[in-house]
Design goal:
The protein is of the alpha/beta class. The protein is built from five helices and five strands; from the N terminus they run H-E-E-H-E-H-E-H-E-H. A hairpin with a 4-residue loop joins strand 1 and strand 2. The mean pLDDT is 90. This is Anti-sigma factor antagonist. GO terms for molecular function: anti-sigma factor antagonist activity.
């Protein structure tokens, strides 16, 4: 059976090397557990996770970076896109589990001015109740 052009193109398209699981903490917040690489290929996965995490009542989205293996400039761009969506919905974006390396990148890019950065899940969840 001959391969179609679409079949060959699908084989050549890089796939996202990331999984994201959504957990509802309480009525105020949901957590997105990020495991793997946050690159341009993760856009669909991240936006699907955000849509699942955000049901209109949620006031805060918390990103868990404990399982993050790699993030490049495209991944930072995805976070900016997510931040715009979160702000449009009048929600807050918080994180925890960032390594020192990625914390410094958040500082250099000034993302730490717009995204609440916390050490632990408990601290991030507590910050949603303020």
């Amino acid at each position: 059976m001959a391969e179609s052009r679409d079949d060959r193109r699908e084989e050549q398209m890089p796939q996202a090397q990331v999984t994201m699981d959504v957990r509802r903490v309480d009525d105020n917040a949901s957590i997105i557990d990020i495991k793997g690489e946050l690159t341009a290929f993760a856009e669909g996965v991240l936006m699907d996770a955000y849509n699942q995490a955000s049901d209109g009542r949620v006031r805060a989205i918390i990103l868990n970076f404990e399982g993050l293996e790699y993030m490049n400039s495209s991944g930072i761009g995805l976070l900016v896109t997510l931040l715009i969506r979160v702000n449009r919905e009048k929600q807050r974006l918080l994180t925890y589990g960032l390594s020192e390396h990625y914390r410094s990148i958040f500082q250099i890019t000034r993302l730490d001015d717009a995204i609440g950065i916390h050490e632990t899940e408990e601290e991030a969840v507590e910050a949603t109740n303020v």
